[in-house]
Write a structure and sequence with these properties.
Length: 488
């Protein structure tokens, strides 16, 4: 009986032996689209067989084995995979060996830049669900306020939507201390200084602080400093006094440094980020949109897009929305257009067309990894033509930014069609949504046209689109290739 892509238990059971069996698995986790497995010996992975499974959209090797399954499916398969490990008696071994082997893998495979970006992601990615939920409620509150509907409900929605953003520094401090080996609650306590209203009474060097000055960047720096102070205290404070003195000294030293230094510096940096983003789009909008929209897919592929999370969060704090995210979201539109062209041109490749059918709905909603790793990147040239579509969509939004029409997002995470409920701008909801929709349409059309015209030569069909001239997707030694054309 053929394996059903809709059966998570069957998929999990098929994946397990292909990654070396239970004894080779040291950790199990998942994100929006990928099952992430820590492995004792990555060489035991049979990538070709994994890619051949109906439910698998791609495989990525980055210190861990990452199996791209798509949104929704990944959570169900991960749960089934964990149950399967427990049934086979691997849970105890997983807990005993996993952390040490995971750290060893990271040391062996991660560059300092990747490690830094991974830590940034570990701090900010857990906050995204709250940012999304509160962002949608903020948009709904604004809509009700503008239309005059349900006036009694509007203040309640506004309070619910704004509360998290008012205290986001505390969560950033908590996650920072946790990520860097400190006590999370101490990190949150130090970061809370940044948003405490009483800081308005503090003056230093003739300057008065404002609550929230420095934002998430100040909170991150404060918690990082606090973690360093805490570790120093653990090493030097006598054991009998450690439980009393270490927390007090950590909060005191890091708190004073935050008040009399970090908040000022972080405030200047945050202000510069906001001014730079505004200047970039209003002054060089078309060029900036072209570059940002065109380069975002390579950034996603390399994991460098995680460095943008603090920038988005800072802009949301300052301006209530980030003007960068809609421009970057155009990369997904180019990806969708390119995938549609591949679907129409490579008619003889049933395996690839099945992958596109399953991944395209997620791509329309802004989850591009299944299309990146399952379609365009393995084929090579369509990845570059997808970038061209993203560049065109970004230039479209950049043009309107130069004309004075800002398009922003009140939260980070979603893109594509899923970003519509989070849109905000200076011209009202309907004009903002219309401009964003125009950018998406531009990305779809250009991504499709360029891919259809030049992106598939020699990859599966002739220019007439009727005769196969290369191995179909899934055949031959280059199936699932995840590198640029011309690279090893």
């Amino acid at each position: 009986m053929p394996l059903s892509p809709d059966d998570p238990h069957a998929t999990a059971a098929a994946i397990l032996p292909l990654v070396g069996g239970p004894a080779n698995v040291t950790s199990v986790a998942h994100c929006m689209t990928r099952l992430r497995l820590g492995l004792a010996d990555p060489a035991l992975v049979d990538e070709q067989a994994l890619r051949a499974l109906p439910a698998v959209l791609g495989v990525v090797a980055d210190g861990t084995c990452q199996v791209v399954l798509g949104p929704g499916a990944v959570g169900r398969v991960t749960s089934a995979f964990e149950e399967l490990l427990e049934e086979r008696g691997a849970a105890a071994e997983l807990a005993a060996r996993g952390q040490a082997l995971k750290q060893e893998q990271r040391r062996r495979n991660a560059t300092p830049l990747k490690l830094a970006l991974r830590r940034v992601a570990n701090i900010f990615v857990p906050l995204i669900p709250a940012l999304i939920g509160c962002g949608i409620l903020a948009g709904l509150s604004g809509l009700l306020a503008n239309t005059g509907l349900l006036p009694g409900l509007t203040p309640a929605l506004s309070a619910i939507a704004s509360a998290f953003m008012a205290l986001i520094a505390v969560f950033v401090g908590h996650n920072t201390a946790k990520e860097f080996g400190g006590t999370p609650v101490l990190g949150g306590a130090i970061a809370a200084v940044v948003v405490y209203p009483g800081v308005a009474k503090v003056t230093a060097f003739g300057l008065t602080l404002a609550p929230g000055q420095g934002g998430v960047l100040g909170a991150l720096a404060a918690a990082l400093l606090g973690t360093g102070v805490e570790k120093w205290c653990h090493r030097h404070v006598p054991a009998a006094l450690d439980v009393l003195l270490t927390p007090a000294l950590t909060v005191l030293i890091a708190g004073l440094t935050t008040l009399y230094g970090l908040m000022y510096v972080a405030g200047e940096v945050s202000t510069a980020i906001g001014e730079a983003a505004t200047w970039l789009l209003t002054t060089t909008g078309v060029v900036a949109g072209l570059v940002l929209g065109g380069l975002f897919l390579p950034l996603v592929m390399l994991g460098l897009h995680q460095a943008l999370i603090p920038l988005h969060t800072t802009l949301i704090e300052q301006q209530t929305y980030t003007v960068l995210l809609p421009v970057l979201a155009m990369a997904g539109a180019g990806q969708v257009g390119a995938a549609a062209a591949v679907y129409l041109r490579l008619r003889h490749d049933a395996s690839l067309r099945r992958t596109i059918r399953s991944a395209l709905p997620a791509g329309l909603l802004g989850v591009g990894e299944p299309l990146i790793y399952g379609v365009s990147l393995p084929l090579g040239r369509p990845f570059l033509t997808a970038c061209a579509g993203g560049a065109a969509g970004g230039a479209f939004l950049g043009l309107f930014a130069m004309l004075g029409d800002k398009v922003g997002a009140t939260a980070i995470g979603p893109s594509g069609w899923a970003l519509f409920p989070l849109l905000a701008g200076n011209r009202g909801l309907l004009p903002t949504a219309a401009i964003y929709a125009g950018g998406l349409l531009t990305g779809y059309v250009v991504g499709f046209a360029v891919t259809y015209a030049v992106g598939l030569r020699g990859l599966g069909e002739t220019a007439s689109g009727t005769e196969p001239c290369a191995p179909a997707h899934g055949e031959g030694p280059d199936r699932g290739r995840t590198s640029y054309p011309g690279t090893p």
